[in-house]
What we know:
34% helix; 6 helices; 166 residues; 7-stranded mixed beta sheet; globular; alpha+beta
Amino acid sequence: MIPRWHAEPLAQSHELETFSCGHPALDNWLRTFARRANQQNTARTYVWAEGDGTIAAYYSIAPTAIRKEGLPRSATGGASLIPAYLLARLALREDLHGQGLGTFLLLNAVETICAAGRIGSGRLIVVDALDETALAFYQAHGFRQLPGTLRAYIPLKTAEQLLAGN
């Protein structure tokens, strides 16, 4: 099944107030900070929007760098500070849960990040999961947990392979 939505950059025409994914922190970030982060160039938010501008899902991406501690050498390339992309937010409207759309949303975000990586470089995609359930979701899609944290990562090369298989 291919979702009816496509990702588009967050715009003023998008209606944010009614979005609810079941995690108040993610809902609040979209309503309160997403537009500001876009304006300040600290994160880019992409949305799946209905025809009336209501949001079905969103994800935000930001540049980051992480220290090599806890990462295998294959992920670091020998560097002590690794350039990466942070998948800062990923949320699907609550009434759409349980339909497999979260996987499509994640693949959409990964595709966007891989395109950025081909232009601007970077070795990893990093995510800070909200909880163990979210961490398990990312792990089911090839992300590896950093020991003792809710942080997970996937090398961009591996992510490209993941996309090629879908």
